[in-house]
Design goal:
Helix content is 67%, strand content 6%. The chain has 884 residues and is of the alpha+beta class. The strands form 5 sheets. A 4-stranded antiparallel β-sheet has the order 3-4-2-5, sandwiched between helices. The protein has a 3-stranded antiparallel β-sheet with strand order 8-12-9, sandwiched between helices. Strands 1-6 form a two-stranded parallel sheet.
Length: 884
């Protein structure tokens, strides 16, 4: 049946070559038009397993909560005026059409008006104590009492309250700077009001541990999955920040976040895939031109390759509709695989022509003698890829379909187009046709056969060593080891993790009522891996909690109405309380240092100073003791403090329960869904989560969240799910592909022994590849590990072609290897060139994939050349002369 098919195809090509070419051209045009509808979806979301709740939940969150996918801007200023740098950036960015809102400080008015209702019961008593006396000395006295009650010798209390403490201490630092200036300058009431608000509410900015960087968030008008707007939108925001930097040389901004990284990924993958495809095609043509000593035939060989890829992209558009972050590189990979078919056709045709066959006989020889091997190799490779479609991972399913359809499309294009093009060339025998043999390959096969026992022993030792090395291969899960190298957005992301001691890649989940939101937030924020939890209950506690707090606030409200009147400053008492405050802050700093709470240490050191470098509080006390101040200015400052403190603390009186309607727009948009039915919650891990995602810290963090909230989502969740699923499914895929190929080889050769011998070089090559990627420190990730099922599907062709030619030939092994050896050498070199072109990618995962495939394909050829001659014996049905 198969022989009749190839005979019929050869006759049709000889009789109607132009008709075949016209039909294939029309099909190509139609499928090319379809390929224009392909979408690029270069997001990690699409890689999650089918049905995984993290994927569906993420899309739901992105659709319902615009604030979920926001950008982060780091703000620095050489002059130290971070507030101005943030304010100018916010004002300029909000003028852009791509920006909905910019947040760089908390809503102080809301916190001031409703803050007492937002405090936990224990903290409520503390804040009440410092509100009792609006006089400056009285306030500092009450503040000292609070510090001594809560934190004297108690580092655990500092750890529990560290975030709030850092905010209040920074507010205190700001106020002390103001107080120090008041000794020699007039302080406007607006400045005093600002300082008092910071004493009551704390620092309104999200500052780094050392205070040298502020963090802003930008909510764009487009989503992170809106690929048409990513490039212009992110580009406009980045350009505006650069413009501000030029206008204000001291300012420095960094930009990161899901949108920015997605834009960078899209640009890198598009550039890398296009460049890899072009370089791969050029290298393949150079190899073929050098091998065949002619330029026209290799160019003709590229025609069906390009046509087949066009057919594949058209079919992909029809059946899948998109290319994901991995399958966008399939065209580059198909060049190396598809050119193999052309190489075998060219090798067979030139071999026939070198033997003085006519054009007609050369076409018959090529299709009837070489065609079956190509068909078997294509079917086994395509079957290997189609096996991936049973995976639960969507991107593996798409990879299997696209690569499988691509292999079959290119094979069909090669069978139809290349023989017709070769036939239509100059019919006269060309003097440039070279002998189609590589005798050196035949001699190497004969040598391997002659010295088979020592050769096999050496191979076995190499395999044992490689397997041992392979057990130590590292598997990268951090996005930093996968994303394109050198991305500025990744550097800024690391900068945030280092300076703020938290990952800006938040893990997200939704809740449908305030009580559940509050309970989950309280449970999660107490976990040791969690830096902070952002939830709406920070601004709107559930009703039962509010009711309990309102009962406690009755006495507070009465106290706020009957506080002492203004008292002129007693300088000695003021100095005494300031020194007491200094001692308390020094003790808090020392306790924090011993407990590793750097955030608190940095603020207390700034206020109290270090040996040889006095802080603002020490300077203020020294000036008061040395009487380096104007009494009237000090009196004015203390009086202004009393008025501002009385006014602002008076606003804190609470009489009724808060509702959603009381929330300002910026808080609503941050936490409440578009339809108002659910709330968004964000969990931030301590430190850089990506550096510890595979460590017990990362495992416990994700396991804890998934246990408490099964539908938790976010990039860290995707990566962990992918890691677990890929680790499981690649092993299953390798097994299924191996079994499928063995069955196909048995049906082809009708011999288990020959099927096993054809398969053995492949297993050996995979083992050596594992060892080498460890020795070369390449290692693996969720993409490059997929090289192994690909190598199985690709590398089997060498053994198939060798044993197929041995079976149909009456020549000895050396002669057969000399003939077919050229074809498998060229297919190996072209495949290596194609996959090697992936190593130019900035995408680290694609680079590793290229390296792994490059090594694997090379050793498939080497092991075929060594193992098959050594294992085939005279007992085989294959005729062989021992003398050769």
């Amino acid at each position: 049946m198969r022989d009749k098919l190839f005979n019929y195809l050869a006759n049709t090509i000889i009789k109607k070559p132009k008709t075949i070419l016209i039909i294939t051209a029309l099909v190509t045009i139609v499928l090319l038009l379809f390929s224009f509808n392909l979408n690029l979806e270069l997001s990690w979301v699409g890689l999650a397993p089918k049905g995984d709740p993290s994927q569906t939940e993420f899309r739901k969150i992105v659709d319902n909560y615009p604030s979920a996918s926001k950008m982060y801007v780091t703000v620095e200023d050489k002059g130290g005026d971070l507030e101005s740098a943030a304010k100018i950036a916010a004002e300029n960015l909000e003028k852009l059409q791509y920006v909905k809102r910019v947040d760089y400080r908390v809503n102080m008015d809301y916190l001031l008006d409703n803050g007492l209702l937002l405090y936990e019961s224990d903290n409520l008593n503390n804040i009440t104590d410092i509100l009792k006396n609006p006089n400056l000395t009285g306030f500092i006295t009450n503040l000292n009492d609070l510090y001594e009650k809560e934190y004297k010798g108690n580092s655990s209390g500092i750890e529990d309250d560290k975030q709030e403490m850092v905010r209040t201490l920074r507010g205190l630092d700001y106020f002390l700077q103001l107080a120090d200036r008041s000794l020699t300058q007039n302080i406007k009431f607006e400045e005093m009001d600002k300082g008092v608000k910071r004493l009551l509410v704390g620092d309104p900015y999200l500052s780094s541990i050392k205070g040298e960087t502020l963090l802003m968030t930008v909510q764009p008008t487009f989503g992170a999955l809106d690929y048409n707007k990513l490039k212009p939108g992110v580009g406009a925001i980045a350009e505006e920040l650069k413009k501000i930097e030029k206008e204000h040389p001291g300012f420095k901004y960094g930009l990161t976040g899901m949108h920015v990284i997605a834009r960078d990924e899209m640009e890198s993958t598009t550039r890398d895939s296009t460049l890899a495809m072009i370089i791969g095609l050029i290298l393949v043509l150079i190899i073929l031109i050098a091998a065949f000593k002619m330029w026209l035939s290799p160019l003709l060989a590229a025609v069906p390759l390009i046509v087949g890829i066009i057919w594949d992209m058209g079919l992909t558009s029809i059946f899948i509709g998109r290319l994901n972050i991995f399958t966008v590189f399939t065209a580059a990979m198909l060049i190396g695989l598809g050119i193999d078919f052309s190489v075998h056709i060219l090798s067979g045709f030139t071999e026939a022509r070198s033997k003085d066959y006519s054009l007609e006989d050369s076409v018959h020889f090529t299709l009837e003698k070489v065609g079956p091997g190509i068909l078997t190799g294509a079917l086994t490779t395509a079957a290997a890829f189609f096996t991936l479609t049973i995976s639960s991972l969507g991107f593996l399913v798409e990879l299997g379909l696209i690569m499988g359809m691509g292999i079959l499309s290119i094979m069909l294009a090669v069978f139809l187009i290349l023989p017709a093009l070769l036939f239509l060339r100059d019919g006269s025998k060309s003097s440039t046709v070279k002998k189609g043999n590589y005798p050196v390959i035949g001699k190497m096969a004969a040598w391997s056969r002659k010295w088979r026992y020592p050769v096999l022993a050496i191979v076995l030792l190499i395999l044992i060593f490689s397997a041992w090395q392979g057990t130590m291969v590292d598997f990268y899960l951090s996005i930093k080891k996968i994303e394109p190298e050198g991305l500025e957005s990744i550097k800024v992301m690391d900068d945030i993790a280092d300076k703020f001691n938290m990952s800006n890649d938040a893990v997200l989940y939704t809740t449908d009522n305030l009580k559940k939101t509050y309970q989950l937030a309280e449970e999660i924020k107490d976990q040791p891996q969690v830096e902070r939890v952002s939830a709406i209950t920070e601004y709107l506690p559930p009703s039962d909690i509010q009711q309990q707090r309102l009962k406690n606030l009755t006495a507070v409200n009465q106290m706020l109405k009957r506080r002492p009147g203004y008292q002129k400053p007693d300088i000695n008492n003021l100095i005494t309380q300031l020194k007491r405050l200094e001692n308390n802050l020094i003790e808090i700093g020392q306790l924090s240092y011993m407990s590793g709470i750097d955030e608190v240490v940095n603020v207390t050191d700034k206020i109290t100073g270090l040996p040889g470098n006095p802080g603002i509080l020490s300077n203020f006390i020294s000036k008061l003791e040395a009487e380096k101040y104007q009494q009237q200015k000090l009196n004015d400052f203390v009086s202004s403090f009393y008025d501002s403190f009385s006014e602002n603390s008076g606003k804190m009186e609470i009489k009724s329960e808060l509702t959603v309607n009381d929330l300002p727009a910026d808080i609503k948009s941050q936490f409440i869904s578009a339809d108002g039915s659910s709330y968004l919650n964000s969990v931030y891990a301590k430190g850089n989560l990506w550096d510890r995602i595979k460590e017990p810290f990362g495992s416990r963090f994700i396991h804890m969240l998934r246990e408490k909230v099964p539908r938790v989502t976010g990039t860290p969740i995707f990566m962990r799910v992918l890691y677990d699923q890929v680790s499981k499914e690649v092993t299953e895929a390798v097994f299924l592909i191996a079994v499928t190929l063995l069955l196909l080889l048995f049906f082809h050769f009708r011999s288990f022994k020959e099927a096993f011998i054809a398969f053995l070089p492949l297993i050996s090559a995979l083992t050596v590849t594992m060892g080498l990627i460890k020795i070369l420190n390449v290692n693996l990730d969720i993409f490059s590990v997929l090289a192994f099922p690909l190598i199985i599907g690709i590398g089997i062709d060498d053994g198939v072609h060798v044993i197929h030619r041995l079976n149909i030939s009456d020549q000895d092994m050396q002669t057969v290897f000399s003939s077919v050896g050229r074809a498998i050498l060229l297919t190996t070199l072209t495949t290596m060139a194609s996959f090697g072109s992936l190593m130019i990618a900035q995408y680290q995962a694609i680079y590793r994939l290229g390296v792994t495939l490059f090594i694997g394909v090379a050793f498939c050829f080497i092991m075929t050349l060594i193992i098959i001659p050594a294992l085939l014996t005279n007992k085989n049905k294959i005729n062989e002369s021992e003398e050769n």
